[in-house]
From TrEMBL:
InterPro entries: Bact_solute-bd_prot1, SBP. Residues 1-19 form the signal peptide. The keyword Signal applies. Pfam families: SBP_bac_1. The keyword Signal applies. It comes from Paenibacillus whitsoniae. This is Sugar ABC transporter substrate-binding protein. PROSITE patterns: PROKAR_LIPOPROTEIN (PS51257). Gene3D superfamilies: Periplasmic binding protein-like II. Keywords: Signal.
Amino acid sequence: MKKASTLGAGAVALTVLLAGCGSNTTTTSTVSPNTAATAASTAAASTAPAKKVTITAESFKADQKEKNDQLDQRIARFKAKYPNVEFKKDDWQYNPLEIGIKMASNSAPTEYTTYATEGKVLVDKKWIADITDSMNAWEHAKDMNDLLSKPFVVNGRTYGVPIDGYVMTITLNKKLFKEKGVPLPPMDWTWDDLLDAARKINDPAKGIAGFIPMGKGPEAGWNWTNFLYAAGGDVQKLDNGKVVSLFDSEAGLQALQFYKKLKDENLIPQNWALGYGDALNAFAQGRGAMVMCGSGNAADTAINEGGISKDDLVVYPMPSFTKGGKHTGVLGGNYRVINPKSDKDQQQMAFKWIVDEYFTDDFLKSTQKEIEDRKTKNRVYIPQPINYWKDSSDFGKKYTDLLAKYDNVFKYDPQLLALWDGKPEAQYEAQKFYTEMANVIQKVFTTKDVDLKKLLTDTSTKVQTEVFDKVKVE
């Protein structure tokens, strides 16, 4: 699912990285234009090679004028430092069904954006360049977030640069717990802890559910996959060029049994057929004590749309299957990668272009402007708990210090980042898998004596024959 990585503060971060400033912000430089131009010219003369290099950069569709204007501004800033570089622009957006055609016709841009699911398949097909040497030579390589970088590190080599990301979390309404006199579960919680809390908070007579899962659309399968992962399961594997289904397993059965308990004990909303926005809105309206989604997006909706106090919310990692186990949640995000068919000069310049405005004060200024704009509107800034940088880096500390200056910033418990573990989404036909699992979940929620093992086996067979067997892996 890509929804969680394109909502809330993550969207601001993505736009800052792609365009040099937030989509609703304007960065004001304290350096005069003449001084900046002189400095840029000096830097260019000492660092830029004389050879002309042309790269094709990813742009936006024609109707996205503001983003394209910001991209043009960023290109101008880059060319001031590297005047030997010529830019072409391509508004093609990554599509797993189109990338093979783009590569075969040699029409893919020099650099493009893809998502977390695609790392290994793009490496296997040799459709992205190995950027390990460029990454190792970069001064900020050691500052990159290892967890977020993981989907594009294959066999110890690096193939992509993270832009933004999420790890699935569960957001709790502390006010509902307090009103019921129920203590919050430990952050190092388990499935049993979640069930125990849901039972104690659950109040169907008042329309309050203990837990809100997403129950319709592919997001229902996306939610369920977190429990598959937590139980030690997986969706698929690649075996001799064939995609093989793995979710018909003991872990898959345990995850379905967990969902059946939620339904049998009436711990979910009476109207459980909720999509992504429906589930977040129900939580924001106080109709459930806990909801699952990507990172801080549930908090954003609850606080800025539902009027819930930021002090009444807390974000937990996914519960572990057993005490002491991993708190594994689905990891998703967006990544910049480089076309391996471009020559070495183009690849090296494309890497510089991708990371040129990472770790810059412009990003911090843009964030500050966004926080202050929200404050004037009595709104809270919800930072994403995972970013492309390490929190322990100098830049990470600057970012943390900036957030600490404002009282309208949502804060995460430090235990969250210490406990959570991210596992990337399935690499092949994830959306079709999620859709089929949504059908399974709906049967679990509607059929009293459903045979969970048979249901899982039948669905696995269907997905294998109708979806995975048709995937062509070169």
